[in-house]
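Methods: example folding runs. The two proteins below were folded one after another, and each record is reproduced exactly as written to the output file, sequence line first and structure-token line second.
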Amino acid sequence: MSDREEEKFEEERARREQPWDEQEPPLWSDADEEEDQAYFEKKARARKRLKKILAVLLAAVLLANVLSFWPMLYNMQAIRFLSVSRELSRSDQVSGYKQAVAVVGSKGGKGTGFVVSSGGYIVTNYHVIEGKSSLFVSFPKGKSYPAEVVSSNPSADLALLRIDPGDAALHALPLNRAGSAQSGDSVYIIGNPLMFDRVANAGTIVGEMPIDSMDIPIIAIEAPIYKGNSGSPVINEQGEVVAVVFATASIERSGETMKVGLAIPIRYLLSDLDRLGVSLAQ
């Protein structure tokens, strides 16, 4: 092919082909743009619904986790001691003891105390009131009183509070001045364990024993003792307080490990009561 013929061929091909600078049509039209905007709005609404569903599911999971702790709190032992308390409370004697047992509380928690004088003196543990402010004492019918600490014995973990009962007639528990509590004696323990108030339970004196953290011997009791029982009176069959619960421990007995309640003999409080001239219940 001559040069002239080749030039004509190229010119003819150029006329047949689309120009290189012609713009390509858009990938979507205005109608497509409206459809795309609606698509994204629909997707945003779906995302909001999904967030709400996830929030509900998360709340359900959290609730399930909280509820899973209830069996730990209301376990069979708790059910058992509540059942025992209900049966014991049918007795007028035990029901009367409960009237003298109070909740000793503050913003930091609660413990147990009991009235020893109608003049408004209440015994509890020192660790229940240690470092606390704005103490209060409340009784079965819901009446609460501000309380002040009039005496404390940290080494024996005992404290004496006083309230002004006004015209209210307080029930008081007599104290066992002989300080006698023999191994095998049956006793009652009344306190405010866990989330409950004035729970009565029966126990048995194991005996007196020394512990490393205290300079005085303490009384071990085979009985259900829980958090909140600190300050509970240990009452003998004559209705006298022989000790004050302050802790629990595991001890070896007859080759077996057993959990026991620990209590301070009431005799370690008597000198303070006599010094203050407290008129005790008889």
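Second run, written to the same file directly after the first:
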Amino acid sequence: MRVLAVDVGGTHVKILATSESEKREFESGPKLTARQMVARVKRLARGWRYEAVSIGYPGPVVHDHVVAEPHNLGAGWVGFDFTRAFGCPVHIINDAAMQAFGSYRGGRMLFLGLGTGLGTALIVDGLVEPMEIGHLPYLKHTYEDYVSDTGARAPGKEEMAQARRRCRQAARSGARAR
């Protein structure tokens, strides 16, 4: 089966289809709605053949349904009929869970995705569970405020930028929790 994979992020939407080698993307942002995303993805994927769509969504998803509006995008995601809009079967999963599963090689894995936000997922013996810990309170903000691109760029948040650099350095060095 040929699948169109869609990674919806707070700053970009990236797509790639089975048997294609060229990743394509466009800017997203705080005004992007689900309807706009689908229209732009369909235009960008013109010429590609696919029979199903898999969407990584930046927020909670239950049984292929978006259950909360995204923090970094426009409204209109909850209740949107992606299957009807794309005209083929659509599977929706939390974006961090999708990214984690794509790099999973067995056993246990805690995934921390540092980008526009902070995506988190846990995989144990092939079962993936998105965690959404980025929105948990920490000090006067949330974890996401300290380590995400958005938090690191906010005015007066140099300490957040430093914390983010330390997290990325630890991740690059291969630091592992035991």
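Comment on the second run: The two ends are 38 Å apart (CA to CA).
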